[in-house]
Write a structure and sequence with these properties.
Protein name: Stage 0 sporulation protein A homolog
Main location: membrane
Organism: Lacrimispora celerecrescens
Distance between the termini: 146 Å
Keywords: ATP-binding, Cell membrane, Kinase, Membrane, Nucleotide-binding, Phosphoprotein, Transferase, Transmembrane, Transmembrane helix, Two-component regulatory system
GO molecular function, one term: ATP binding
Largest sheet: 7 strands, mixed
Oligomer: single chain
CATH class of one domain: Alpha Beta
CATH superfamily of one domain: Histidine kinase-like ATPase, C-terminal domain
């Protein structure tokens, strides 16, 4: 009996041990398979990050090349050279621009072709003439010129194992199509510079295929030009190619994906099992397919280190727990390492995106800097022009009197000049040289609307109707008439542009609203009562994606050269400064309606208040030295001062004025000098005059008040600074102060 128990005990123990071993073996096998899948998935995620980075690198480089060439062909000098060529046949100036660009951009195109609109070449330049020649008909130059578009051209073989890419930039001047510039990019250079640095590691590699599935970038030059579907015999029929066909099907129908498949390089047996990740690069309607490939054995090579541990478990049950602990620890360490690598690659991708965003912000800052420079120059020139316009208008109003039949006409000229002056003051903030003369006061909004309607009716085409429906609420708003005039003209002009061609109806209406009648999103920040101004058109309307961007600076739907993208951005800024807001509703092909909301003011309207200047008595006691390089300003100031009894000696050249002062320093009681002159700045002239005549009073006039002028005023070198356009009454007062006279 005991012997039977011992025998049964051994059998039970044997079954238990066998079951335990089988269970542990099964558990270990499942663990091994799970680990293997995890390794493959982690590698695929790494490969996916690499393909995204490659796609972004290539897209940024090609887009930048198109942008740089567009900047080149849009420069006035290049366009003038093209116009000269069409008149005289000369190409030297054009060649200079092309040669300079290619020499300055060593990573750019290797060849450039300049074409007539019919595709005939004007000339071409090969930066590397020692490279192999190719059949230029592959470039399809005639089609590139006839299509008159800008973007990606064709991918073509330079040689059997060497591919190139053409980029097309159309040349326009004044709306006239002058031809096209076709640039040839060497894809081998792009591969070496932007693809190879993102190394897959080991036997892995990165490939790029065009829309037809032709290999255009590959580390093995023999694979260039290869197409799986075209070059592998019976590819669509044989079962052995199932996994490869499935991978290609996913690649050509999705934006990105991953696959494990059997690869047949060049159709040669045997197959290599590979894992890959791929993504599609979309650039101006052209698709390329980026693949990062790694041999399957390399992807799972990390598992082989643990095989010996798995074998020990089969022979030593007692070491199972220890071996399992080691395996689990090893799995965790390897997984952590792979996760760190994934995070590292993700950070690289984020860094590339931030770099791209930084470049866009830098370009945006350059635009704003350019606008600031232009604003300063424009303000200076306009103020010089407005000085005689406003001055002569004031002078004629004084001389003619209100009873004269031309008084109202001259008054309109004066009002327009004042409005232009205030518009210049709106430009000054862009140059960081603001003045404090922008005036806010109670306004009759209906009067501002009618005035703007009167101006826009002069430019409105005959096929566009104009309907004005004012609520007669006689509501006043607190603000600046010129700024609100600018807002309305902007909206009127945009509405007219949207109806060009087919015509339509522009409707302007107003109504007075309580807070609870406002749109819900504005009620929390609104006051008690508002005026709503609606500007509605029956034009082309706007899509939702455009509506979300219309108030962004530099965004425009107009053709290049027809709009700055600043109009609606300025409209929004002006309304915010008036404690108001704007919203828009639009339906494509039906029209748009802009709603302006302004808080009602209790003040009395002062829109059309007129100022009658007092008559001035004449004086003959003051002799003036006037120095200004603008002849129009000199003539105006001289004429008015002499009619008021002053003796004026005027000079357009500051050096001649200094020479005259040296010869007779006691001749003048005061000096009026312009700040900005080409031969000598007004600040330098004022200092040299003070050295010769420390007691003489100096008045400086300027379109922009700079810091050096303010420093001279604080130091007592300059007695006063007047901003152009000059107010004549203020000029007289400052002259009397500078000359030490009492007011007459």
């Amino acid at each position: 009996m005991k012997r039977l128990w011992e025998k049964g005990k051994k059998q039970i123990l044997s079954v238990f041990m066998s079951g335990t071993i089988i269970f542990l073996t099964f558990a270990m096998y499942n663990t091994y398979q799970a680990y293997r899948r995890m390794i493959v998935e982690q590698q695929q995620q790494n490969l996916m990050l690499i393909t995204r980075a490659v796609s972004q690198n290539l897209e940024l480089n090609i887009s930048e090349q198109l942008r740089q060439i567009s900047i080149l062909i849009q420069t006035p000098g290049f366009l003038d050279a093209m116009e000269t060529h069409y008149r005289t046949g000369e190409t030297e100036k054009i060649k200079e621009y092309i040669f300079s660009y290619m020499l300055s951009d060593q990573s750019g195109p290797s060849r450039m072709y300049l074409l007539y609109p019919n595709g005939e070449p004007i000339f071409h330049y090969n930066q590397y003439p020692f490279l192999e020649k190719f059949d230029e008909s592959l470039l399809q130059l005639e089609n590139s010129a006839l299509e008159s578009t800008t973007g990606i051209g064709v991918v073509f073989p330079i040689s059997e194992h060497h591919y190139g890419l053409s980029l097309i930039n159309s040349v326009y001047s004044g709306g006239r199509y002058l031809g096209a510039v076709v640039s040839v990019m060497d894809l081998e250079n792009l591969y070496q510079k932007y693809v190879l640095p993102l190394n897959v590691g080991g036997m892995g590699y990165i490939t790029v295929k065009d829309e037809q599935g032709i290999m255009i970038m590959h580390p093995n030059e023999k694979m260039l030009g290869f197409n799986y579907r075209r070059d592998i015999k019976d590819f669509e029929e044989l079962k052995q190619y199932d996994s490869l066909r499935e991978m290609l099907g996913i690649q050509y129908t999705r934006e990105e994906g991953m696959a494990i498949y059997d690869s047949y390089a060049n159709g040669v047996m045997p197959a290599d099992k590979e894992i890959s990740a791929f993504s599609r690069m979309n650039l101006q309607g052209t698709s390329w397919y980026i693949s990062a490939v790694m041999p399957y054995n390399q992807a799972v090579s990390a598992e082989f280190e643990n095989l010996r541990k798995f074998g020990i478990l089969f022979g030593a049950v007692l070491l199972i727990v220890l071996a399992a602990s080691v395996i689990i620890y090893s799995l965790m360490k390897n997984r952590q390492k792979l996760e760190l690598e994934t995070v590292y690659l993700r950070e690289i991708n984020d860094t590339l995106e931030e770099l791209h965003q930084s470049r866009e912000e830098a370009r945006h800052y350059q635009k704003l800097t350019t606008i600031g420079t232009l604003a300063g120059g424009i303000a200076h020139e306009f103020n010089n022009l407005l000085t005689p316009i406003l001055g002569y208008a004031e002078f004629l109003k004084e001389q003619l009197g209100k009873e004269n039949e031309y008084y109202q006409d001259i008054d309109e000229v004066h009002k327009a000049g004042v409005r232009a002056k205030e518009i210049v003051e709106q430009i000054l903030p862009f140059s960081r040289k603001e003045t404090d003369t922008t005036e806010y006061r109670p306004l009759n909004l209906d009067a501002v609307i009618r005035d703007a309607v009167k101006m826009v009716s002069l430019i409105s085409p005959s096929n566009i109707g104009l309907k004005v429906l004012l609520d007669d609420c006689e509501a006043n708003v607190y603000g600046n008439a010129t700024q609100l005039h600018q807002v309305l003209l902007n909206l009127y002009t945009n509405a007219i542009h949207s109806m060009e061609g087919k015509g339509g109806m522009l409707t302007i209406s107003t109504r007075r609203l309580k807070t609870d009648q406002l749109p819900e999103e504005y009620r929390q920040i609104a006051g008690t009562e508002y005026v709503e101004v609606s500007v509605a058109d029956t034009g082309c309307g706007m899509k939702e994606e455009i509506l979300r961007q219309i108030f962004s600076p530099f965004f425009t739907t107009k053709e290049a050269g027809e709009g700055t993208g600043l109009g609606l951005s300025v409209v929004q800024d002006i309304l915010i400064s008036h404690s108001g807001f704007v919203r828009v509703e639009s339906t494509p092909e039906e029209g748009s309606c802009f709603y302006i909301y302004l808080p009602v003011s209790a003040g009395r309207s002062a829109v059309q208040a007129a100022v009658v200047e007092p008559k001035r008595e004449l004086t003959t006691e003051i002799s003036l030295l006037l120095v200004d390089d603008e002849e129009r300003v000199v003539r105006y100031i001289t004429r008015r001062l002499e009619r008021s009894g002053y003796h004026v000696d005027a000079y357009a050249d500051p050096l001649k004025a200094l020479e005259a002062l040296e010869q007779n320093p006691e001749r003048w009681n005061a000096v009026v000098v312009d700040y900005m002159m080409p031969q000598m700045k007004g600040t330098m002239l004022a200092q040299r005059i003070k050295i010769r005549r420390p007691d003489i009073g100096i008045i400086m006039v300027t379109g922009l008040v700079e810091s050096d002028a303010l420093q001279l005023k604080q130091a007592g070198v300059v007695d006063s600074i007047l901003v152009k356009p000059i107010n004549y009454n203020m000029l007289i007062q400052e002259i009397k102060k500078a000359a030490g006279k009492e007011r007459i």
